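The instructor's notes for this session suggest beginning with a concrete chain rather than abstract definitions. Hand out the sequence below and ask the class to guess, before any prediction is shown, which regions might be ordered.
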Amino acid sequence: MNVLDKILENKRDEIKRRKSLVPSFLLQNSPNYSRKKYSLKDSLKVSSCGIIAEFKRKSPSRGFIQEKASADVVIPSYVRAGAAACSVLTDTSFFGGSCDDLMMARECADIPLLRKDFIIDSYQVEEAAAWGADAILLIAAALEYGCCRELVACAHELGLEVLLEVHGSTELDYLFSGIDVVGVNNRDLGSFVTDVNISFELAREIPEDFVKISESGITSMQVVKELRKVGYNGFLIGERFMKEADPAVALGEFLRDEN
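After discussion, reveal the predicted structure:
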């Protein structure tokens, strides 16, 4: 069983528990559930930097990165530093996140927020809306094609956009007009090995009409510049910033390197 399989097995059990504790009707009564959402897609189109700055305490490959980090401190600092959007990990077992992180982020951010998790059930889409997300991550490697389309439809019904994550050419079969943003993950979720060349290799295979971003392993502005040349609109960066004492300062310094 690889890392992704372990995460998904745990996620299925987690969803069962959460459904029993918080029924859908309670999620639907949340003030955030029907709020007007910010557009991740539009933000990436007009942003001068395209950075989706991520809030992440730990990862399966690195363990804790910033165990004591607080979303209500990091997220508004990211906003002030110039992030186009923010990504918030809500998986607890493997990434140290929680629903509270996303809800706190919503209270102090006026830019698009992505719920980053292993979403495999429509209940999680409802959670995302209730917790204040503007977009959700769907991972092709974690979903059957039919399920993916159903989750996209569910997200759009709730006003949420969808970032579809792919890692290889075969997963490009999941692309259809309902996908708002395509993300190429440079990290293999089976082995957690990272290679940014994946983004360069897939760039020419993704139709030009899709807004596309590169995820994971982006360590310098020079890499960002090279990715822009092959058509990427956005860049999801987490560990590069979160490993520093002040993630927002790290983001600011990263952006200054562009000049």
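Then share the key points. The chain has a mean pLDDT of 95. The domain at 3-256 is CATH 3.20.20.70 (TIM Barrel).
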